[in-house]
Amino acid sequence: RKLAGSLLAAVVMCLASHAQAEEVDLELVLAMDASGSISSEEYILQLEGPATAFRDPAIQAAITSGPVGKIAVSVMLWSDAAFPKIKCGWFVLDSARSAETFARLVETFQLSKDRTVDIGGGGTGIGAGVREAIDMLNTNSYRGLRQVIDVSGDGIETEFSFSKGVMVRDAKLLARAEGITINGLPILSENFPALDKYYRDEVIIGPGAFVEKAASFEDFGRAIRRKLLREIQSQVAIAPQPDGWRIAGRGQTDK
Q: Cα angle vertex 155, ends 153, 161, to 5°?
């Protein structure tokens, strides 16, 4: 009887928590590269891109155009598994005013008053970043019609013996099991001129998943605006499927 009572209490608590969650059209994690390959100037360009995008009237209109009329968004900085992930917390955007508030936070995130950078370092732990983003989606107080992780970075995943963590191949399986979409924004360079192919083959997964490449860090602002508009406007049908996937409606899986 005690066991049955405990199970019933757990179910009731779970249902109560689910009922209390705030409904949104989209839960979005902007998972941005803060590894050792990112210079201060490049990091600032990564901040300016989404800050400018969330001030764009087209983005603001898209935010309020869904069935619920609002989204929940958070920024998370990742590097390799040995470094802590830096997060800004969750913000609900439902108006031009709330989008402006979030844009102000993003453009100064982890910057000191003299515009010096306080970020991670280390290797390119894409899988560790994705795993953290999945946890963020699973433990927040929102219930989105869609859950998306927006991964941006300038290199392929690296693995060091001193910083063992979840690799991207395994993180993708975790995302698939949860019905979470991972989109990619690779930043091309002389070192990785075909990074978009790597992201397409190794990083993205899920309903409507796609890659939007930036030709350089200077091109990041254009790419993130285009990517955010597509993510926020995406028409993904929320329906249980035999294999646990939520299928794409008008969106198309770029995989």
A: 110
**Tokens representing 190?**
């002389």
The overall pTM is greater than 0.90: no
Tell me the CA distances in angstroms from 126 to 66, 87, 123, 239, one per residue in order: 30, 16, 9, 29
What would the pLDDT profile of 150-180 be if each residue is shown by its tens digit?
999 999 998 765 556 789 999 999 999 999 9
Task: Render pLDDT for 182-215 as a digit per residue (tens, 0 to 9).
Answer: 999 999 999 999 999 999 999 999 999 999 999 9
Q: Which helix (H) or strand (E) holds 184?
A: strand 181-186
Q: Encoding tokens for residue 6?
A: 């405990």
Question: CB–CB of 41/219 below 8 Å?
Answer: no
Q: From the CB of residue 111, how many other CB atoms can be counted at a distance below 10 Å? A: 16
Token digits of residue 125 = 């732990």
119 contacts 43 by C-beta, under 8 angstroms: yes
